[in-house]
Specification:
Elements lengths: L7 E4 L5 H10 L5 E6 L5 H5 L8 E5 L5 H15 L4 E4 L5 E2 L7 H29 L2 E6 L12 H21 L4 E7 L12 E2 L1 H8 L6 H17 L4 H13 L6 E3 L2 H12 L2 H10 L13
Bound molecules: NADP nicotinamide-adenine-dinucleotide phosphate.
């Protein structure tokens, strides 16, 4: 086993957004930081003034690459005796109705948001179990507690992450491993501009005569507006993640923004049928949806 003097924190997708805000927040801490991003994004760390140091290590990790996942965890096990805190933050969002998602596009979405993160966990766990300590924080979303139209694949990936994390919470508790889901809602950022359209959803966005055009036309600005109006910033969510990392008894689910608390309460308190009716009624201009196409 390597040097165990300092706790090692791994953050995936640390090149931008919430991951970068968390990286900045932890820079002055006593943790050893392993900040990861895809090789194509590594230059962003230097641009942000984050460089290699005694306590800061920048590594290439595409979470969809089994070879890169294995290399990262093997290196950390050998040099520092294992991961102490794994923050699975990297994520992408496909914007498409279910009918506009091919099998391969669904698998791509699941690979980044679910399959990659759970494989990192699987690889980090043996060293955590050996030490009878460790923390796993999976960044989920309000999309992991409720699904909205045009977000089928994203919600499926976050629901999958939530389900697996809930099992893990019970499975690893006997070794003292602490497992949490941090659930941000709408965050004031440009992240919504980074959503991926599939080839069919792009076609529908471009063609006013396409059956689902109204879904995209009204959902996209609706969500962009909610993000613009949100008072939650990446820095505030990073603060919630850090607090979760340091809590003696972190809860399984940690809503990270005001709307996440609100939606969690609505899901808990409202009868399910009434909740779905209410959400449908409040979708933007929903009466204009479904008027075109076969
Ligand atoms: N922002 C929000 O409103 C919001 C709300 C709820 C939940 N979340 C969740 O919070 C997490 C961070 O989101 P964000 O808003 O900060 O997003 P973001 O600004 O788009 O950043 C996403 C990060 O994930 C990385 N990434 C994407 N694909 C990757 C891959 N294949 N391998 C490794 N890294 C990859 C990106 O790296 P590259 O630089 O290489 O692209 C980037 O660092 C995600 O899990 C997201 O689902 C965000």
């Amino acid at each position: 086993m390597g040097d165990r003097g300092t706790e090692t924190v791994v953050v995936t997708g640390a090149s931008t957004g919430l991951g970068l805000a968390l990286a900045r927040r932890l820079l002055g801490s006593s943790y050893r930081l392993v900040l990861t991003a895809r090789a194509s994004s590594l230059a962003r760390f230097a641009a942000e003034g984050i460089g290699e140091g005694e306590r800061v290590h920048v590594r290439a990790l595409d979470v969809t690459s089994a070879a890169e996942r294995a290399a990262l965890i093997d290196e950390i096990d050998a040099r520092w005796g294992g991961v102490d805190v794994l923050v699975n933050n990297a994520g992408v969002m496909y914007r498409a109705v279910l009918e506009h998602l091919t099998h391969d596009e669904m698998v791509e979405q699941l690979e980044v948001n679910y399959l990659g993160p759970v494989d990192l966990i699987r690889r980090a766990l043996p060293a955590m179990r050996a030490r009878r300590a460790g923390r796993i924080i999976n960044v989920s979303s309000v999309g992991g507690m409720m699904a909205m139209p045009t977000m089928a694949a994203y919600s499926a990936s976050k629901f999958a992450l939530e389900g697996a994390t809930e099992s893990l919470y019970y499975e690893t508790r006997p070794w003292g491993i602490k497992v949490s889901l941090v659930q941000p809602g709408f965050v004031h950022s440009d992240a919504y501009q980074l959503v991926h359209l599939t080839s069919e959803s792009q076609h529908s966005v471009d063609d006013v005569r396409e059956a689902y055009h109204a879904h995209y036309e009204h959902m996209a600005p609706f969500i962009a507006r909610l993000m613009r109006l949100s008072r939650a910033t990446p820095e505030r969510v990073a603060k919630v993640i850090e607090r979760t990392m340091r809590r003696r008894r972190p809860p399984l689910r940690v809503p990270a923004t005001f709307d996440a608390h609100l939606f969690a309460a609505l899901r808990r308190l409202l009868p399910r049928g009434f909740y779905h009716w209410l959400l449908y009624r409040n979708l933007p201009r929903v009466k204009t949806w479904g008027q075109l196409g076969p």
